[in-house]
Design goal:
single chain, 271 residues, alpha/beta, Glutaconate Coenzyme A-transferase, nine-stranded mixed beta sheet, three-stranded antiparallel beta sheet, 14 strands, 27% strand
């Protein structure tokens, strides 16, 4: 029952090339950066990452991306990650972009033992009909008249069925070799509590992993967390790493960007 592991490096010592990872976090909130850095230090490559987004330049999953360790990304948002866009458009990275709610449900389904489900999201679009570029041909930074380079791999069409006179598209569940998540509190049995926005994709990612590793900001004893406060039960977690005070303080939760316009002439001379 005691799932505590001393360090992130120890918790991920058996990571190998080509494995898949479900990674929690949304934007820059709730990102398991210590565990991501441990994967980077382990030298694993050719990884398949499933996450809402792929970090930012030099932060989060962006660390693995810039090192050329990620071969495929399944997510719903590119964001302001210039390296992500560059690798995708140049044919270095395979990317499956799917609706955000569908991604969340595919992860939850994987953890719940549901192999597939039908959803109305994507009906009548390339999500259902296929043809979304997953990978461009190498050197595909040159553009065709349609706006993209030569498509090497495109998304396949999906089954569409009618229920109660409405069309729905079939989506497959997602399971991964590993899941990496970050929690505000956790006990040695793996019961986790997430703070605010960190609660969105972290529990879902944790459910989808065959081996789930949680980095926790505050490690408490079993029984110290009220069962009603548990966001993710320990049955979904195999390894727990307690962060040091320095690791806790190093997180990047501030995602606001202040933009101040230049004063008008009248404002500039106002006493």
């Amino acid at each position: 029952m005691d799932k505590q592991v001393t360090t992130a490096a120890e918790a991920l010592a058996d990571v190998t090339d080509g494995q898949s990872f479900a990674v929690g976090g949304f934007g820059l909130s709730g990102v398991p950066e210590t565990l991501i850095n441990a994967v980077h230090a382990a030298g694993a490559a050719n990884l398949h990452v499933v996450s809402n987004n792929c970090g930012a330049d030099g932060r989060g999953l962006g660390v693995l991306l810039e090192a050329g360790r990620i071969a495929r990304v399944t997510g719903s948002y590119v964001g302001a990650n210039k390296e992500f866009a560059r690798q995708y458009l140049s044919g270095e990275l395979e990317v499956e972009l799917i609706p955000q709610g569908t991604l969340a449900e595919r992860l939850r389904a994987g953890g719940s033992g549901i192999p597939a489900f039908f959803t109305p999201a994507g009906v009548g679009t390339q999500v259902a009909e296929g043809g979304i570029p997953w990978r461009y041909a190498a050197g595909g930074t040159s553009r065709t008249e349609s706006g993209g380079g030569t498509v090497a791999v495109a998304s396949p069409p999906k089954e569409v069925r009618v229920f109660d006179n409405r069309e729905y598209v079939l989506e497959r569940a997602i399971t991964t070799d590993w899941a990496l998540v970050r929690a505000a509190r956790g006990d040695r049995h793996g019961n986790l509590v997430f703070h605010s926005a960190a609660r969105n994709f972290n529990p879902l990612a944790a459910m989808a992993g065959r081996i789930t590793v949680a980095e926790v900001e505050q490690l408490v004893e079993p029984g110290d967390i009220d069962p009603d406060e548990v966001h993710l039960p320990g049955v979904f977690v195999q390894r727990v790493v307690a962060l040091t005070p320095e690791q806790v303080a190093a997180k990047h939760d501030n995602i606001e960007r202040r933009s101040v316009s230049a004063p008008t002439t009248r404002e500039a001379v106002r006493p």
